[in-house]
Amino acid sequence: METGLADLSHIDEHGRARMVDVGDKPVTARRAKASGRLTCTRETLELVRAGKAPKGSVIATAELAGVMAAKRTAELIPLCHPLALSKIEVSVTPDDELPGFAVDAMVRTEGRTGVEMEALTAVSAACLTLFDMLKAVDKTMSIDALRVTAKEGGRSGAWHRE
Length: 162
Hints:
Homohexamer; trimer of dimers. Its EC number is 4.6.1.17. This is Cyclic pyranopterin monophosphate synthase. Pfam families: MoaC (PF01967). Pathway: Cofactor biosynthesis; molybdopterin biosynthesis. Helix content is 28%, strand content 30%. It is an alpha+beta fold. It has one domain: Molybdopterin cofactor biosynthesis C (MoaC) domain (Alpha-Beta Plaits, 2-Layer Sandwich), CATH 3.30.70. It has a five-stranded antiparallel beta sheet with strand order 2-3-1-4-5. A hairpin with a 6-residue loop joins strand 4 and strand 5.
C-alpha cells in the first residue's frame, strides 16, 4: 500500500512536519492500552522478587516512572497534543516465562485525540526505569514487544490486538 504525502496527517503539502488540527473533532471518551517487556536473567528476577536490588524498590519506581512519563508525552514526542489525562495505570509484573517483567499501561481522557502515545510512553519509561535500576547486576537485559494492545473512542471506534 503506497502512501502519498497528502495521506500523512503530520506532513503538510510541502513535506514539512505539522501538528494536526483536532479543533473540529468531537470530544469523546478515549482509552488506550499498551504493553512491553523487559527480559533479564532468572537471577535478576529473583533479586527483585526478594527485594534485594541495589537501587531499591524496582517495580514501584518503574510504575511511578510510567505514570510520570505518560503525563509528559507532549513534551517528549514532537507534534503530540498536550492532553488532560483522567486516568493512568501502569503495572509491572514479574514473569517467570520470559524471564523478566511484563509491563502494561492504560490511559484515559475525554478529548479530541487518542491516548495511544501516552500509553506507549508510559510502558517505555517503565521499561527504561527497570533497565536503569538493574543494569548494574544484569548486562543481558533487553526491552521489546512494545505495542498498542487496544484503543477506544474517536471516529475509528474500538480496536483490540488479537
